[in-house]
Amino acid sequence: MSSTHYMDLLMQNSPWNLILFMAIPVVLAETIAITELLIPLLSERAELTKRVNRVCGVLAGVAFIGIILYLVPAVVLPLASNGEFRTWVDATAIFSYLLAGIPMILLALLNLKLLFKHAEPKKRNVIRISLLAAFLVLSHIAMIFGMVDPSIAGYQPAKHSVEMNHSMPDHSMHDHSHHH
């Protein structure tokens, strides 16, 4: 069984990659979604909930700026330039994950009043909920495709890459006779 680069990334450097690339963004997004649902119910007493919503929205945007700035040069560009995506399944997982960051970054800009600052509150609410919805859809597409075995789309791991991992060159065998 093979896995997508998305899954490999989450499993490497355990548990730190899982925390940075999955747990932090998901916890922030869930907090935003839950507070978004609570605000209408709390009506006048929603000040703290609104503040938590805004702070998490900004933090999620900052987190995704960091994630995108790291993943694009470190993972996406090398995979793309070497044609190493494990079929369209792998590419879909990675690109939908990166695209999910865009609505979060826009949400942060909205919360910082750097985007649509003159829009009336109702319009800002619609935009905020739309951005959150876009994030949820894209991040779930990434998770679903990330968990798919790319071999169902025809991916076949190179046979030599498996053997190479087991035959690391032994540097102690080099001839050191040139030292008199």
Please characterize this protein's 3D structure.
This protein has 180 residues and is mainly alpha-helical. The chain has one domain. Helices cover 72% and strands 0% of the residues. It has 6 helices and no strands. The longest helix is centred in the middle third of the chain and has 35 residues, at 47-81. The protein is elongated, with a radius of gyration of 22 Å. The model is unreliable at 162-180 (pLDDT under 50).
Brief summary:
The chain is mainly α and 180 residues long. 72% of the residues lie in helices and 0% in strands.
Any descriptors?
180 residues; disordered C terminus; mainly alpha
Any chance you could write out the topology, listing elements then pairs?
Elements (H helix, E strand, L loop, with lengths): L4 H7 L4 H27 L4 H35 L5 H25 L9 H27 L11 H8 L14
Helix pairs in contact: 2-3, 2-5, 3-4, 4-5
Terminal CA distance: 52 Å
**Element pattern in H and E:** HHHHHH
Task: Provide the number of structural domains.
Answer: 1
Summed over residues and divided by their number, the pLDDT gives a mean of 89
DSSP strand (E) fraction?
A: under 5%
Q: What share of the residues lie within helices?
A: over 70%
